[in-house]
Structure formats: structure tokens, C-alpha cells
């Protein structure tokens, strides 16, 4: 080996290696930019999609009506009226006048059953669902007399867990990591709303004193019943017309709520002095609940029970907007942040298409159930 020779790569090879590393870094940078751009475009497509806009519109309308019921119920409590059974009785009667009468006048065919057919074969199922639905409303409203609004808001999150578990078991809904991420983001948004309430000085009163535990137990029981009611409602409205559910629930619900009103609240209502300060918020409450039931059934039919409950987490934000003018609540910037988190959670949740939520085998089994149901209906006729 001559003295001019050396071991290792020459300068040209070193330049080539450094150039290759530079190209590799550029390539990785382009890939990252493309992925980020693609993610942004996918988010924009989801934001502009009919599915998200439909879920957002229906869900926030339900949330707005729910906050309206809370406001008018609060006005009634200020007048010393605490009759949740009586308040819901008028709502069930109004629904009954509209949808049960519609069912009674409707002729039966392959896709629509008559009122007599439903009472004969599925009456006990609708009666049980009406009992669950009414008691869920009754327990949560009753809980406000013993515990704080903060406890009700936090414990009511249990409804989402119940809906997810029951939907997976009975409706065969398959939840992905993206769905769970959306649920977590929305629940964190609710935590922000509760924290904003505490920072702004709301929900500091303890109406129950030593009986606060009773209010918490009532909320937990009501949340579980809410979840059962919502999943049962989803099963019905996605298989049959919405009028079937609303007509049968209102028929049995009016009897159940009326009976409970007579047994538990008749004496308390007899002591109330009726005036416009009571009748006006009472009728407003009934109107809000009537519209709420209509919008809830439509929202569940178009989306799902889980999407509905995620949307209802933003009700506290709308209650704040009402409270700013009616109860002189204090505003906190955290309300805006929490509301954005709730909406972001809904965006993440609905970003997965319905086809990805249900496996092909589940779709086949669902279609098979519909065919069997139609065959049984033909036999009944």
C-alpha cells in the first residue's frame, strides 16, 4: 500500500451519505406535512358533513330544550312547587292527545301496526319502558331537593356509561378507540362546566344538609334508568316509526305519573296558591318537555343514544345563558372552553361512519331480525 492510499470512505462517499440523509429528512418532513394536511382536511370534511351537522343541530336543540326545562322547574321551586310527577303528568297527557290518538286512527299494514296490535303483543314492554322513563325523570328532579346541582351534573355522567354498555350488549354497537376518545373529551368538557360553576360562585348551597347522600343516590338511580330508557328508545325508533314509541309511552306514562301524583304529591299540591307565577312556568315546562320528547326521539333515530347523551352535556352552558338574564349568574371564560370541548368530543365521536360502528355480522343479524319481525306480523294478520 502506498503512502497516498488511505482506509475508509473518501470525501465523495461522505458527501453522498450526508446528501442521502438530507434527502431522507426532507422525505420524512414531506410525509409529516401530508399527514397533517390530510388530518386537517378530514376534520374539515367531518365538520361540513351532513352527519356531523345533523348530530350537532339535533343534539344542541335537545340540550337547549333540556336547559329550558331546568330553568322553568327552578322557577317553580322558587314558588314552593316541588311536584315532578304532576309536571310530567301534563306532558304525558299532551303527548297522548297527539300520538296515541294518531295510533288509534291509523290503519295497520306491513310496516305500521295498529294500536290494538301493539297493546296485545307488546303492551307490557311499552308499559315497562314507560315506567323506567317516568321514574328516571322523577328521581333526578327529586334529587335537586337534597343535593347540589354540581353533584347532579357529575353523577348524571353515569348515563353515558350505561348507554355504552347496554348498546354494546343489546344493540351490538361496536365502539372504537376514536369513539371512546370522543366520549372522554365531552366528559372533560362537562368537568370544565362544573368547575366554572364553582369558580363563579354557583352551586355552593347545600339544600339537603345531612340528606345529601339521599340526593346522590337518587341521581345515580335516575341516571341508570335514563340509560335504560334511551337504549330502549333507540331500539324502538330505529325499527318502528317514532309515533309508535311516543304514543305508547305517553299512554302508559300518563297513568303511571297520574297515579304517583295522587299517591305522593296530592297533599303538597293542595297547599299551593295558584297564580300566573306558577301557571306560566308550569305550562312553559310542559311545552319544553313535549318538544324535548319529540326532538329526542328524532335525534336518536337519526344518530344514536350515545350521541344524544354527549350532546346533552352542553345543557349547563345554555342554562348559564338563561341564568345571566333571569337569575343574574356570573359569567366565566371557562364556560366557553368547556362548551368547545363538549362539541369537539361530539366531532370526534361522529367522525367514525356508521358502517364502521357495526360489524357485518351484526348488520346481517339485524336485518334477519327485521325480516323475522315482518314475517311474524304477517302471521298475526
Helices, strands, pairings?
Blueprint: H1 11-48, H2 50-78, H3 84-104, H4 115-143, H5 149-155, H6 158-170, H7 177-199, H8 212-237, H9 242-270, H10 276-302, H11 305-311, H12 315-326, H13 334-350, H14 354-357, H15 360-380
Write down the secondary-structure element order.
HHHHHHHHHHHHHHH
**What is the end-to-end distance?**
104 Å
What's the total number of strands? 0
Strand content: under 5%
Number of domains: 1
Task: Give the uncertain stretches in residue-range form.
Answer: 1-7, 354-381
Number of helices: 15
What does the average pLDDT come to?
80
Shape: globular
Helix content: over 70%
Structural class: mainly alpha
Rg from C-alpha positions? 27 Å
Largest sheet: none
Please characterize this protein's 3D structure.
The chain is an all-alpha fold and 381 residues long. The chain has one domain (51-203, 210-351). The chain is 80% helix and 0% strand. It contains 15 helices and no strands. It has helices at 11-48, 50-78, 84-104, 115-143, 149-155, 158-170, 177-199, 212-237, 242-270, 276-302, 305-311, 315-326, 334-350, 354-357, 360-380. The model is unreliable at 1-7 and 354-381 (pLDDT under 50).
Summary, kept brief:
The chain is an all-alpha fold. The chain has helices at 11-48, 50-78, 84-104, 115-143, 149-155, 158-170, 177-199, 212-237, 242-270, 276-302, 305-311, 315-326, 334-350, 354-357, 360-380.
